[in-house]
Sequence to fold (268 residues):
Amino acid sequence: MGCGYLGRRVAQSWCDAGDQVYAATRGARADALAQTGLAPLTMDVTRLPSSLALPPVDTVLFAVGRDPRAAASMFDIHVTGLRAVLDRLPASTGRVIYVSSTGVYGQDAGDWVDEDSECGPRREGGAACLAGEQLLFAHARGRNAIVLRLAGLYGPARVPHRADIAAGRLIAGAPEAFVNLIHVDDAARAVAAAADLGPVAGRTYVVSDGRPAARREYVAQLAARLGVAPPRFEGGSGLGKRVRNARAVDELGLRLQYPSYREGLAGV
Fold:
């Protein structure tokens, strides 16, 4: 569910391993998905007909992103849409993996956070993801579910602040605030590890490289790679949060190909 930047990579890896993989799409890319060996399901999770029956599967990945061209809100996707999908899954469905966000945390003084830290989202996206987590674990299909709280995704064709730095524009946000990142390929590895993990009940994992950096440091490194002067900053306050990934490393066995943004940027 959601065959975008992350979901497409996961779907293709499962397909390449010999699995039959259904890929939900709003429709525009159905033919392209079919040509890669996936079985497209044309649907919008925010407007599923009550008569829809989803196929029996071992694993469900819910990684639906918001289409900026659509009217659906984050809550439409992560609450209304998630509930509709869960209600239409067969009783035989195995594991459900829900992609959430470290935006569920509201700490802003440079605090270290992990799965046991208090949640207090400051933005709509984080609030919608937290509501989605709670919905999933309370649902019958949540009996063997795993939540992955992803830090900021980056990778090929998706590098935070790249366009602004290249254009010499001001960078929004406090320069000393921490940024928490995870390369998309490592995030896909976390999904695969969650799918293969033995029986669990209501388990949550933070997925990050575990090496938060000050925004100023990250921006300076990217500017150097682009061969331009480091830009100036505007607005923003607070230090943000620093995300630990120890549980994902210890329990999921997550081994990062890109242990920090420095290695990750080298490939993009």
Observations:
- The chain has nine helices and 14 strands.
- The domain at 7-266 is CATH 3.40.50.720 (Rossmann fold).
- The chain has a mean pLDDT of 94.
- The first strand starts at residue 22 and ends at 25.
